[in-house]
């Protein structure tokens, strides 16, 4: 998937550079070349911003997981056991995979419901 996105970004760069080249007809050659170089210099920055923003928002979906944890705590008659299970949830700051946390929280909720 990452390779596909990188190839699309490269294609996007060529499209932007081509549009700039066509749109700057009549401008001095030095200005046209400087414009293409500016586009090339900016491309990695925008690719990095896109990757960072995607990764940042991927870990921000804790609502369902917290609801499952709250339900497990609510049904629990052994708070120390539930507290230990909550501490064992796979939370890793901004690198947390939401799907893993939701899955673990559902298991926590299901285990305590028995």
| Low-pLDDT stretches | none
Number of helices: 5
Secondary structure class reads mainly alpha
Overall pLDDT level: 78
Please write the string of helix (H) and strand (E) elements: HHHHH
* Range of strand content: under 5%
**How far apart lie the N and C ends?**
40 Å
Q: Helical content, roughly? A: over 70%
Radius of gyration: 24 Å
The biggest sheet amounts to: none
Count of the domains: 2
Number of strands: 0
Envelope shape = rod-shaped
What labels would you give this structure?
114 residues; mainly alpha; 5 helices; 79% helix
What's a quick, concise take on this entry?
Helices cover 79% and strands 0% of the residues.
What does this 3D model show about the protein?
It is a single chain. Helix content is 79%, strand content 0%. By secondary structure, it is mainly α. The chain has helices at residues 2-23, 29-58, 63-75, 79-87, 98-113. It contains five helices and no strands. The mean pLDDT is 78. α1 runs antiparallel to α2 (29-58) and α3 runs parallel beside α5 (98-113). The radius of gyration is 24 Å and the shape is rod-shaped. The protein folds into two domains: 2-58, no CATH class; 63-113.
Topology summary:
Layout: H1 2-23, H2 29-58, H3 63-75, H4 79-87, H5 98-113
């Amino acid at each position: 998937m990452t390779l596909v996105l990188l190839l699309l970004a490269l294609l996007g760069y060529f499209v932007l550079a081509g549009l700039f080249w066509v749109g700057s007809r009549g401008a001095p050659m030095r200005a046209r070349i400087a414009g293409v170089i500016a586009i090339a210099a900016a491309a990695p920055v925008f690719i990095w911003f896109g990757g960072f923003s995607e990764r940042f928002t991927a870990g921000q979906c804790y609502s369902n997981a917290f609801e499952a944890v709250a339900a497990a705590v609510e049904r629990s008659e052994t708070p120390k056991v539930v507290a230990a299970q909550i501490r064992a949830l796979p939370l890793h700051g901004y690198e947390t995979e939401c799907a893993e946390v939701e899955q673990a929280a559902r298991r926590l909720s299901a285990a305590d419901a028995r």
